[in-house]
From TrEMBL:
PANTHER family, per database record: GUANYLATE KINASE, GUANYLATE KINASE-RELATED
Similarity annotation: Belongs to the guanylate kinase family.
TM helices/strands, residue ranges: none
Domain Guanylate kinase-like residue range list: 1-173
Organism: Ilumatobacter coccineus (strain NBRC 103263 / KCTC 29153 / YM16-304)
EC numbers on record: 2.7.4.8
PROSITE patterns assigned: GUANYLATE_KINASE_2 (PS50052)
Top-tier EC class: transferase
Coiled-coil region(s): none
Record-given protein name: Guanylate kinase
């Protein structure tokens, strides 16, 4: 099974998926590939950092579930190695979620929403995002939320974190036994 977790910037996707894979050992978090430079503050396993040539070769070989180009860099979710029978969790943007749904209509898509735009802004600022990035993410959220909601199998409001994680574990369990 493929579980896609999508939603606007700063809503808490990263925090949630980390908790999901920690609590459910049948879940496996896919690490994205990127051609952008590793930030000094970033751990080596934040992404698989590759060259444009390596990325393009993998595109040619059909090796991505979804990929996109953003501000001159590639980002993509590699198709996992065969033999791993855990359920795959992808934390991706709305356009990536659309691509995955097109190729794998049976993927479980959970769209995470903020309790309010004000709270989303508070979370973005709280983790130290710069002003222009905060504004860009809020604007993008306005545009993408209607699309994400429509595409999603489930929309979850991330108000209380613990409740959200439990709700998502239940949704995943229910999809497994469906
Ligand atoms: N339910 C919650 N209540 C309060 N704060 C939260 C909650 N969930 C996440 N946060 C906080 O909000 C901030 C943004 O969370 P996170 O980085 O996981 O968002 P994200 O959706 O992965 O963002 P991006 O799309 O930009 O990667 C973090 O500081 C996180 O600790």
């Amino acid at each position: 099974m493929i579980v896609v977790v999508s939603g606007p910037g700063g809503v808490g996707k990263g925090t949630i998926v980390d908790a999901l894979v920690e609590r459910d050992d049948r879940l496996f978090l896919s690490r994205s590939w990127t051609t952008r430079e590793q930030r000094p503050s970033e751990s080596d396993d934040a992404y698989v950092f590759v060259t444009s040539e390596e990325f393009e070769q993998r595109i040619e070989a059909g090796g991505f579930l979804e990929w996109t180009e953003f501000l001159g860099n590639y980002y993509g979710s590699p198709i996992p190695e065969p033999g791993d029978d855990r359920d795959l969790v992808l934390e991706i943007e709305v356009d990536g979620a659309q691509q995955v749904k097109r190729i794998h209509p049976d993927a479980l898509l959970i769209f995470v929403l903020p309790p309010s735009r004000e709270e989303q802004e508070r979370r973005l600022r709280g983790r130290g995002d710069l002003d222009h990035k905060v504004l860009a993410r809020l604007k993008k959220a306005e545009e993408e939320e209607p699309i994400g909601r429509q595409l999603a199998d489930h929309a979850v409001v991330n108000d209380d974190l613990e409740a959200t994680i439990n709700q998502m574990l239940e949704i995943i369990d229910a999809a497994r036994s469906a």
